[in-house]
Amino acid sequence: MDTSYRVAELATQFQLRLHGDGAVRITGVNTLAKATPSQVAFIASASYLPQLAATRAGAVVLDAGHLAACPRPALVAANPHAAFARIAALFEHAAPVVPGIHASAVIAASAEVDATASVGPGCVVGERVRIGAGVVLGPHCILGDDCSVGAGTRLVARVTLVTRVHLGARVLIHPGAVLGADGFGLAFERDHWLKVPQLGGVRVGDDCEIGANTTIDRGALEDTVLEEDVRLDNLIQIAHNVHIGAHTAMAGCAAVAGSARIGRYCMIGGNAGVLGHLELADRVTITAKSLVTHSIREPGEYSSGVPLQDNRHWRRNAARFKHLDEFARRLSAIEKDRNNE
């Protein structure tokens, strides 16, 4: 079914200020560079001003500072990206959810499945599992014993909840994610490793999103916890007993070691790492590829690592790294001699 809205209707629905022709009919969204006269685009950065000047979009979502540069009808928003996201959702046509249990699914006798839930082909639901209203289990999801899934949650496909995993309402988990596997708990005795039983679980709050092939280990004694509205990208590792505060977002390939605590409203860049047992305050940003080696007590942006250089300069500087301590001692000696003169 085709969906269309007049620009004026979008302005009213999302409480945006209209500038220009409100009668333009909108049927979708696109980028500034590729939008057609029947699509909405947005600009959130001055670096895209050349594209704004040349855009053919039917309307552009922008802030007041970019309004004068816009040649097309405009929807003025305090947060253009967020406003654009709400508009784009109007054109997302998800397949309708059909309640019921597919004939190929295997459901334990002690499991409780709400009548409005949808359990797809090849799913396996273990003992004492509780599946809430409107839940969608896509193909080949596996829910181990003693798990629970809150209302409106969707497991897209091939998601595994190993054991004692409790999901809140409206959680979205993408294909291949594994929650509740054993944490990496080992004790060394004389000449070999002993496995430490992982007796906790995983608790995920409402409105969280977990990316494809991301793994979240269950706790050793207490639970691994994601508070509400935590957003994890693909290929992230969350170790046992980690606690992630509400509204924190982490980009792909990041990793958090065991028992670390990350505050609320934090942002962790791609391929960044947090060592075990550390604490990050609320509203901390860690830039991509940084390694957090000590607790961070104050909000702010933090980075580590050596910036990219051409290979010739990198090899020269790398050869000097091993002499840094020597250089520091020599400089200290020079300063000491000057002070004694």
Span between N and C termini?
87 Å
| Structural class by secondary-structure content | alpha/beta
Please work out how many helical segments DSSP would assign.
5
Output the CATH homologous superfamily of the largest domain: Hexapeptide repeat proteins
Topology:
Blueprint: E1 5-6, H1 7-13, E2 17-19, E3 25-26, E4 28-29, E5 39-42, H2 49-54, E6 59-62, E7 74-76, H3 80-89, E8 100-101, E9 106-107, E10 112-113, E11 118-119, E12 124-125, E13 130-131, E14 136-137, E15 142-143, E16 148-149, E17 154-155, E18 160-161, E19 165-167, E20 172-173, E21 178-181, E22 186-189, E23 192-195, E24 202-204, E25 209-210, E26 215-217, E27 224-226, E28 231-232, E29 237-238, E30 243-244, E31 249-250, E32 255-256, E33 261-262, E34 267-268, E35 273-274, E36 279-280, E37 284-286, E38 291-292, E39 300-302, H4 311-321, H5 324-340
Parallel strand pairs: 4-5, 5-6, 6-7, 8-11, 9-12, 10-13, 11-14, 12-15, 13-16, 14-17, 15-18, 16-19, 17-20, 18-21, 19-24, 20-25, 21-26, 24-27, 25-28, 26-29, 27-30, 28-31, 29-32, 30-33, 31-34, 32-35, 33-36, 34-37, 35-38, 37-39
Antiparallel strand pairs: 1-3, 2-7, 22-23
